[in-house]
Write a structure and sequence with these properties.
Elements: H1 3-13, H2 16-25, E1 30-31, H3 32-36, H4 43-55, E2 59-64, E3 67-72, H5 74-111
Antiparallel strand pairs: 1-3, 2-3
């Protein structure tokens, strides 16, 4: 697991506006003009947010005529989801084990 890359992505996503941009792009690719319709800030501010997301490897950008088009990178999504699953997999197993123990204890207590 590449902890530095994950940290960079988490830092990039740790802003509500960037989180919303990721959410919007999860539905489809969008040009900057369409992304801007969802926010109350200027094009330079959007450009800043997009550069952060691009640097983190979360989005890719292509220029078509005068507009930038943004895409959520599928490889990032797959790697990030796999990393989060791996990171929390032992935790999930511990939660399930503890829940089973608690249920068993509750059953034993109610029998007495």
């Amino acid at each position: 697991m590449d902890y530095e890359r994950i940290l960079l992505a988490l830092k990039a996503m740790a802003d509500p506006k960037r989180m919303k941009i990721i959410d919007l792009l999860s539905y489809s690719d969008m040009c900057a003009c369409d992304v801007l319709k969802h926010f109350d800030f200027t094009q330079p501010t959007l450009s800043h947010h997009m550069k952060v997301l691009e640097k983190a490897g979360i989005v890719s950008v292509s220029k078509q005529k005068q507009w930038h088009h943004y895409t959520l990178r599928e490889d990032f999504v797959e790697e990030f989801m796999d990393s989060m699953t791996h990171l929390f997999s032992d935790c999930t197993e511990n939660i399930e084990t503890n829940a089973k123990r608690k249920n068993q204890t509750n059953k034993e207590t109610s029998i007495k």
